[in-house]
Amino acid sequence: MLITSHPPKVVTEWFDSFVKTDFPRAGTIAPVTFTIPAGTVYSRAGQVDIADDTPLPHSLEPTLRQLGMPTRLQKGIIVLDSDYTVCKVGDVLDSKQTRLLKQFGVACAEFKVNLIGYWNKKNGHVQILRQANEMEVDSDA
User: Is the pTM of this model over 0.85?
Assistant: First the structure.
């Protein structure tokens, strides 16, 4: 519930444009395909130029293996022998996939507020903006 003296048009326009990016949670649908390239495993996993990235510290290698990545240590550097796909568009994400996405900084989930109506103080009526069945359904809701 939001109580404000601003006109409904101003409030609805603001909420329509309000979107925050966050890390996905288990049970949500993957909006992206994310693959970590073979070779040295970098902190952003190929999302940025290697010159602007740093290799992951060797201490994270056991954690990555527990999360399903077939990593190994080679002279103190975490490496992958082949590309590793964390998720594909449309996959239902599990907790291991979401932890890997967070580890590599892949914030691909969106947070939005869907307004469904407002109360008009002048006439005491409720103005419906959207029916509940018209709104996008999010499994985290």
Answer: no
